[in-house]
Description:
The complex is a heterodimer of chains A (107) and B (191).
Chain A: E1 3-5, E2 12-14, E3 19-23, H1 35-42, E4 51-57, E5 65-71, E6 77-82, H2 90-99, H3 103-106
Antiparallel strand pairs in A: 1-2, 3-4, 4-5, 5-6
Chain B: E1 12-13, E2 19-22, E3 26-33, H1 38-48, E4 58-61, E5 64-70, E6 73-79, H2 83-93, E7 99-103, E8 108-114, H3 118-123, E9 140-145, E10 148-156, E11 159-165, H4 169-179
Antiparallel strand pairs in B: 1-2, 2-8, 3-6, 3-7, 4-5, 5-6, 8-11, 9-10, 10-11
Helix pairs in contact in B: 1-2
Amino acid sequence: xxxxxxxxxxxxxxxxxxxxxxxxxxxxxxxxxxxxxxxxxxxxxxxxxxxxxxxxxxxxxxxxxxxxxxxxxxxxxxxxxxxxxxxxxxxxxxxxxxxxxxxxxxx
Amino acid sequence: xxxxxxxxxxxxxxxxxxxxxxxxxxxxxxxxxxxxxxxxxxxxxxxxxxxxxxxxxxxxxxxxxxxxxxxxxxxxxxxxxxxxxxxxxxxxxxxxxxxxxxxxxxxxxxxxxxxxxxxxxxxxxxxxxxxxxxxxxxxxxxxxxxxxxxxxxxxxxxxxxxxxxxxxxxxxxxxxxxxxxxxxxxxxxxx
Lengths: 107, 191
């Protein structure tokens, strides 16, 4: 079971108070996109065994969206961060580098 | 005007390890907006009759009160009859600002859990650390109770107030009553 801290309201709770909404930081291709871009946007997901960045929502709490970095194999939560961003924060990436050397090659 | 009736007509469960009671019709106004904005703060304090609560806190005094629901949402509590007037006043004061106030009194149900085992009863149903050290008087928490969303606060020691949607009032009452059935003490929070 995941223990999640919501960066919006500050509550730390187990995962049943939250809801996962899939991979984060996906480029949203729109009207003028090619078929390949549209396919990538709609269907292509990394599904890694290891470090994964996800969108979550504090479903039964403050109701806000946020991002979470976790390990899909060990269920370790590396951290949560604001939804108002296009990429994970540098300090969180550094922490993951230290804990999972070489994860970027596998991601 | 039609007579206002609460979801469960003040149902209560008295024969368990804690007393479960529906609190009847309670006035509730949802206020959303920038909580750091002075006009919104002033209007909210005037309507609720209490100071602005800190994050994850609830302030109450008599029938009035105010709970911190999320970074941009407050729940104002008042007497059921006063909700309309307070809402009109809020909307007038905030007409020029980006804020939203709605009377949700009839969309909600409110319960009281009373007794020395109140913490234990609630802890069976919500994924929240309810130990006396972690959950103190005035703390407010939006979470789930069994399968439905709910919010509660520790009104005073041994007394929790629970707010849920009216549509699930019977479910919440039943599940609280089951969690409070006699002989079901867990005892982990006993002082």
